[in-house]
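pls read this stuff:
=====
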Amino acid sequence: MCIYTASDVSTPTRGSFQVSLASLVFRGGTKMAHIVAAGSWATAPNAELMALEMSIATAVAVEYLSLVCFMDSTMAMTDLVDPSPHSSQGSSLVACAALQHWFTEDQWRVLHLWHVPSKEEWKIHHEAHKAVKAAQPPCTQAAGSCLTSSVKPRRPGVAQGVL
């Protein structure tokens, strides 16, 4: 069985708003989750990683062998599995811990990360793009597990488990 995710973000170009994150999770042709949330004040690459982490955190709760993630940020895909110090290390550590647990449960599990340029308007990624754009203007209260205030206490323990 395969789970598909698509994630995208929208960063404000004016005003003092937070980024908006969208994560869609599908099993076959059925949408299992449709999440749109505020992602604090972040740069676009950091927000993309938060959205990907949100997708993975949602998807690993389901029993399956293959996880396929579609997004338009190659930097976020690289940072996803990089526990070394960087600006979105908290999101990377949370995702690495979730993936480590998921991989250890079954040796046949596989993660695929696919870059899908937004301009191509590819079906499920474009649906995530439309969902995040519909959330404008972005929320003014933060939500999600990747905020500095909620991740900082977990970093030492998560880092040890990942390294």
Observations:
- Helices lie at 44-59, 74-80, 89-105, 123-134, 148-151, 155-162.
- The CA atoms of residues 18 and 40 lie 5 Å apart.
